[in-house]
Amino acid sequence: VKNNATGNAQRVTAALEQMNIVIVGHVDHGKSTVVGRLLADTGSLPEGKLEAVRKECQRTGKPFEYAFLLDALTDEQDQGITIDTARSFFKTAKRDYIIIDAPGHIEFLKNMISGAARAEAAVLVIDAKEGVRENSRRHGYILSMLGINQVIICVNKMDLVGRSENTFQDIEREYRAFLKSIGAVSPKAFIPVSATNGENLAQRSLQMPWYKGPTLLESLDDFKKAPSKSDRAFRMPVQAVYKFVSQGDDRRIVAGRVEAGKAKVGDKVVFLPSNKTSTIKSIEAFNAPARKEIEAGWSTGFTLTEEIYVTRGEIMAHADHPPLVSTRFRANLIWLGKKPFSPDRDYKLKIHTQAVPVRIQQINKVIDASQASPDANAPSPVGRGTGSPQGEAKPINRHDVADLILESRQPIAFDTIAEGEATGRFVIVDGYDIAGGGIITGVEKDEKEELRAEAQRRDFNWIKGGVSQEARAAKLSHRPALVMFVGKAGVGKHKYARAVEKALFDKGMSAYMLDGTNVLLGVDSDLVWVNTTQQELVRRFAEVAHILLDAGHLVISTTNSIGLADFSAVQALISDFPVLAVDVNPAKSAIGSADLQLTGKESEPDVIAKMVGLLEKHHITNL
Amino acid sequence: MDTLDQLEQQSVYILREAFRHFERLCMLWSVGKDSTVLLWLARKAFFGHVPFPLVHIDTSFKIPEMITYRDKLAMEYKLTMVVGQNVEALKAKTTFPDTQNLPDGDPKKVSRFDCCGMLKREALTNTLNGTWSRKRLNLKTGKYEIDQDKEPYNGVIVGARADEEGSRSKERYFSPRDKNNLWDVGEQPPEFWNQFKTDFAPGTHVRVHPLLDWTELHIWEYIKRENIPTVSLYYDQGSGTRYRSLGCAPCQSPIHSKAKNVDDIIAELKSGKLKNIAERSGRLQDGKHGLEELRREGYM
User: Under DSSP, is residue A392 helix (H, G, I), strand (E, B) or coil?
Assistant: First the structure.
């Protein structure tokens, strides 16, 4: 069996546009019937399929339903419900359609979302007899959150309510009010249909003369393709950097999909959040004509004039329109995890090609999307690392929708959903499973914002010498990096730092110990102590270190005046080189964010061995 | 950007995601039109290279031309070509072709469905998890040798299309299979936008489906556009028949068609002549729920 038609197709050409439509709505409101009937009435079923299903129904004593044409899986026919999204294909003179039939049962909400997340437009089915039910509302909310703004509402089973215009209008009024209350876009059409009888799907109903609007088929053809994203600011999240040397290929290709805008050979480009810059040398492709320019939609690859070390998860952009960079953002999210979304621990955030640890910073409100009017809770700030939420936060349970602020462990590059879809939406992974998904509605300021702005201005405009970072790294056999020994006075930081510097130098590396005192004595000698002086000390220290890193050195720093608390400030200022923290702490208190934790009792050779391992792990020495 | 471009770009994106997330990644290559398009798309994704092994399950009943074609392309594209087989069942001759002439009711008689279970599903499961030995093509000698690599694969790229058959339309781009290779259709992970299931428990593996949105017509149009080499079995050689879908010789029958080349096939598909014949209609093992059951238990 095969539930599509490759034919019906005088007009099929590769150039004909294709559109994904999802059918959603409450369980038993007749989604599969709408699709089955639409396929039957447009001649999109293989010959004999209809008869075969009818015969099968007779044999098993079940009344025939158009839904059986779609519900291919054994369990589904047995239970009479759609378990997963099924796809079928049909075409009109205007375009090819892929119809995604999503399950209406609450248990399969994640399947409905998977179907809807691939759609460009939606048809939501409401049973005229049952009226608006909780999943009618929930699905409406989810469509809106997923960014599907073209929606048709089919009020189905009109034959069961005597094809009453009043019933139809009551449902339209109620559902319009609901959509308005959640800020969703107004539907393209409300259509009274009887899917079983094929009324107002492909053919106009003769029994509902009061309805003057379009049929479902006419409305589908009225959907518009999303406008090209090519005229927006250029965005390409780095998916990978390829170099197939063993195949005798020397090209170093920065690969990814252009999600918005366009770029051409010769363009100066920046990478966020590292602030690295280079220029596009070529646009690479296999078995395709050479091109000088590439635009949104293409999975492509670039070589760069100056080879720089960039990694997956960075966004390639133009310097005049970079994406946002922060650790905090506001988001709307739907939770699908079996366990509630806990503010007490980290989860994995996946956004475009980036994956980082993330935690709830504040829950603004939790909404039961199945209710007629969203119930807002008071904002409930969540103290990071305090172990319990302050105030009475409603937990985010399965199928809840939440407005919240998330905080990532390290800065990430992104856009708000209004600025760019692909770079403004994310999922949360709990253990092995995607447990939630959402959209970024705004950026939240964090403490490092000004430092990042300073770093960005500096790095975008940095005058580069004639020796590239890659050439320097190749010559020295290591990349530059800053290793900060932090901890209280007298715990042995200085001793370790000196030993590490010497050992690395003896291995042929360009290691240099930068003691904060030396910066204090000279660079900081003009500073008078006021309450902002600490920040200025950290800033100057980081800028000095940054110059040494640009020169290619492995900088080992130790200073009492700059502690672990300042570490993220240093990181914000040095985004283009690795910055590692080694915490020397006899109490072994659980600070946790250090890259290496020492007690001060370790022998020097032991610390050196650990350091060598750490540098390898971060790809600083094993090029 | 036309529809073929869009399909190609999404497939390339999926292939790159798979390559990134699975250390032990392979691609199943049946040597048919779909998985050969998939192979081509891998070369697109990785700029002419195929940075993971191609795995072929050889039932020994494939039409000989397919094997010749497989090895020719493997040498030409410098593929890491790995072949797995149910050696035991073939030796014991407990297959459908070996037992089809036995009288009905003979307990030794093996059905087409059970034969598929042994030669394809079981062979696939045990080849992927490394239980059975694999053979690998030596690109220097052109000969197959015992593969020294016995490790299981945890990511498997498959050329299934949603339009082929009902149960395939329920797949995700990234579909997990459990330790026993089982597919739990009701409990599939959500797939938001382009965020796929890339975290998984040890011992499980993920099937990756870059061709899910392609139709049979798209496949042929792409073969034409890219000039991808295909086996001659798809074309009428003068007998007025051709194969529309390739499997084992004893279990497939050709369709009546005079399509002699790619253009003819595209014209035939567009004409609607094949509209009312399911693509796998020539595949005799499918039957009612046949493919779905095979697939739940690990078949492609």
Answer: coil
Q: Which residue of A has its CA nearest to B16?
A: A239
* B-chain residues near A238 (CB < 8 A): none
- CB-based contact A111 B190, cutoff 8 Å: yes
Strands (E), B22-181: 25-28, 54-57, 81-84, 135-138, 143-146, 155-157, 174-177
Calculate the alpha carbon distances from B258 to A46, A408, A613, B236, B261 in Å: 21, 61, 66, 5, 9
Cα B298 to Cα A550: distance, rounded to the nearest angstrom: 53
Considering only CB atoms, which chain A residues are within 8 Å of B10? Answer: 299
Q: Do B199 and A348 touch (CB under 8 A)?
A: yes
Q: How would you class A460 by CB atoms within 10 Å of its CB: exposed for 0-12, middle for 13-18, buried for 19 or more?
A: middle
Rounded to an integer, the average pLDDT of B110-128 is 86
Written in H, E and C, the secondary structure of B154-196 is CEEECCCCCCCCHHHHHCCCEEEECCCCCCCCCCCCCCECCEC
Q: B278–A5: do the CB atoms touch at under 8 Å?
A: no
Beta-carbon count within 10 A of A23 CB? 30
Contacts of B17 in chain A (CB under 8 A): 239
Average pLDDT of span B85-92: 85
Record the tokens describing residue B98, joined without a space.
């070996």
Question: What's the ipTM?
Answer: 0.90
Task: Report which DSSP code applies to B118.
Answer: I
Question: CB pairs below 8 Å between A and B: how many?
Answer: 193
Judge: B199–A432 Cβ closer than 8 Å, yes or no: yes
B3, B185, B225 member nearest A18 (Cβ): B3
- In this complex, the residue of B47, B271, B280 whose CB is nearest that of residue A284 is B47
Neighboring chain A residues of B200 at a CB cutoff of 8 Å: 432
Q: CB–CB of B135/B145 below 8 Å?
A: yes
Best mutation target among A295, A434, A440 (most B Cβ atoms within 10 Å) is A434
DSSP A239-276: EEEE--GGGT----EEEEE--BSEEETT-EEEEETTTE
DSSP E strands in B134-292: the ranges are 135-138, 143-146, 155-157, 174-177, 205-208, 241-242, 255-256
Q: Which residues in chain B touch residue A46, judged by CB atoms under 8 angstroms apart?
A: 275-278
% of chain A surpassing 70 pLDDT: 89
Residues in chain B: 300
Statement: residue B177 has pLDDT above 60: yes
User: How many C-alpha atoms does A227 have within 13 Å on its Cβ side?
Assistant: 5
Omega before residue B189 within 30° of 0, cis: no
Contacts of residue B31, defined as CB under 8 A and 6 or more positions apart, other chains included, come to B56, B62, B66, B67, B69, B70, B231, B246
Average pLDDT, chain A: 86
Per-position b or e across A423-455, b if 16+ CB within 10 A of its CB:
bbbbbbbbeebbbbbbbbeebbebebbebbeeb
pTM (2 decimals)? 0.85
Question: Amino acid letter at A400?
Answer: D
User: Chain B residue with minimal CA distance to A247?
Assistant: B49
Instruction: Please compute, for residue B94, the number of CA atoms within 13 A of its CA located in the half-sphere on the CB side.
Output: 11
Residue A46 has its nearest CB partner, among B47, B269, B278, at B278
| Residue of A21, A249, A286 to mutate for B, most B C-beta atoms under 10 A | A286
- Contact between B81 and B56 under an 8 Å Cβ cutoff? The reply is yes
DSSP state of B119: I
CA distances from B74 to B29, B37, B39, B42, B160 (A): 11, 14, 10, 14, 21
Local confidence band at A221 (pLDDT 50, 70, 90 cut-offs): very high
Sign, CA dihedral A470-A474-A480-A483, equals positive
Closest chain A CA to residue B79: A247
Burial of B7 (0-12, 13-18, 19+ CB in 10 A): buried
The beta-carbon neighbor of A87 closest among B49, B169, B218 is: B169
